[in-house]
Amino acid sequence: MLPAIARKSVTGVVPLLLARFEMKDAQALGGFESAVFATPQQILKLTHTLRREEAFIEAELHFVRHLADHHVPVARPLPSQAGRWVEASPDAEGGNWLAYAFARVPGHPLLAEHLTPTVVRAWGRLTGQLHMLSRRYLPDSHLPRRQHWHTEPVLDLRRLPPGLDEQQQRGQALIERVKARLCTSENYGLIQSDLHGDNLHWDGQTLYAFDFDDCEYHFFLNDLAVSLHSVAQLVPPGEDATSFCKRFLEMYLPAYQEVCRLPPDWREALADLLRLRDVLMLGVLAEAWGIGTPHEQLEVAEDLEVFKRYARRVGRGEAICNVDWARL
After folding, report:
1. What CATH code is assigned to 112-327?
2. How many helices (H) and strands (E) in the chain?
3. Do the bridges between strand 42-48 and strand 96-103 make them parallel or antiparallel, or are there none, so unpaired?
4. 0.90 exceeded by the pTM?
C-alpha cells in the first residue's frame, strides 16, 4: 500500500462504506495495495484516489463482468445497494475513499502441495480463456481505457532508491526491448497481469481468478510470466528450482494451448517478461515500503532481504529461474 495511504485512518469511513454494500459484519483481511474486508459471501476492497480514480476502477469492473458473463470462473463484481459499482466517501484530508465489492470465490490459494497436474492444467486453461475473451472485449466508451504496461509509474526506474545504478541501466534496457516487440491483436490486449497463486483459488473442482486491480494492456504472455514467477517462489526446500518450474511448464503450456495458441516467438518473449516481473516488483516494493526514504517501513526484518534479492537479479540481468527454453 502507498505509504501516503497507509498513514491515513480509515476508522470513520469503513462502517459507512461497508453498509452501502450490506456488509456491516465484515472482517478485515489486511491487503497489500488495498484494504480488504470480507463476509462469507462478499469481498470489499477499499482504496483511495491517491492511487486509483473512480472511473479507472469502473473500467476494471467492466472487464471482469465481461469475463464473468462468458462463464469464466472469476470473482463477479457486485453493485452497492444504490446500484453503483464504486462507492466514494470524502477524505477530510483531500480526495476520496473508494470501495467496490465482489462475490467471494470458494477454495484456497495455491501452495506448492496444491500444484497437481489437474490444478496446473486448470491454471493453463483458465489463462487461455482470459486471453481469448480479451481479444473479443470491447471497452465501455464512456470509461477511460486501462493503462498500457509501460506507463506504470513504478517502471520509472529513476524513482528507485539511490545506489541502484546498475539496476536502472539493465532494467531500462529490458523495458525498451519489450516495448520494441511488435504488438498485434493476437499477442497483446487487456490482461489480469497479476495472476499468481494468491490470486487464484482452487475448490477441488474449479480454479477461480480474482483481483484484477492491476489489469492492463500488455502482451498476453505476461500472464504466463507472472504465473511462472510465482511458481518459482513456491519451490519446496531441497528441490531444484529449475526442475520444479520445468515440470510446471510441461503441464501448463499444453493446457493453455488447448484454448489459446502461443505466438511463434514465445520462448524469447517469455524469458524477457520473466525478468521484467523482477523489475516491476523492485519498483513496487521500493514504493510500498518507502525504501531509502524517511518513511521506510518494513513489516518484518526479512522484507529488506526480499528487496535485495530482487535488486541482485535485476542488477545481473538474471531471471528467477533458469529455464532451458529450447527444450520446451
Report:
1. 3.90.1200.10
2. 9, 10
3. antiparallel
4. yes
